[in-house]
Amino acid sequence: MKRLKRYQYERYAVLCQLAYPRVFKHTRYGFDPKGQQIVYNQHGKIMIRIVWSQRDEEVIVIIKGSHSISDWLWNFAIHKVRHSTLPVPYPIHAGFCHLLTQPSQPKGGGTTSNVSVFEQVMRYLAPRIKEGKRITVTGHSSGGAIGCVLADIIDIRYPKTIKRVVTFGQPAIGGWKMHRRYRLHHKTYRICCDLDIVTFLPMLPGYYWHVGRLLWLHNGKIYHNTPAVIRLGRTILSWLFRPFSYHLMSRYIRNKDFFDKR
């Protein structure tokens, strides 16, 4: 597996943080004036940004984490389901499945749409893929979990198109069947900052499994694939004092110095 470089980490972390505000000046970060397309959720709120430049082969799909009360509530739908429209050979977290398959409404809502979120993403990516571009998927929190499934769908439909998957503070989205059949373990970097409690969710050992390679940023070092029991022991003690402080994107950006400069 190729190493994730510092400049790559910093770029994706910054984009994940900037995806949350309503206004995102993508041209400030080297993307074309017309190099952004937005996917809205069923309430007409921004959920996913797709950005690119003609000078670069990479298209970046940026997925926001839970940012509304309804999004947070769907986090608690922890049973696994298969959805007829999702072309993946495994069941996933029911709440995150809903977020992927919900209708993508135009900005502001009010108009009925028969196109789901993931289908809208595929429609936007198709022309870019035909141009020969490769896709990087990145996301924070539930956006990272959703990103793993979305990247797998892209790879199934367009083999060898995915460049990498980089997630920040993501919970698990599938079980052993997903862990076994996920196609992108070698391209997926699952980044956990210090003692982020969200990375242990849902807390159902054996029922949920993570995918990809864990990079644990802790005490000035990068640890690779550290067993959950070790991280969890430290997390419980820290959580008693600062429950969610390690889950903020600002913590991930601060830790960019862990990565290689080149």
From TrEMBL:
CDD domains: Lipase_3. Gene3D superfamilies: alpha/beta hydrolase. GO terms for biological process: lipid metabolic process. Residues 61-203 form the Fungal lipase-type domain. This is Lipase (Class 3).
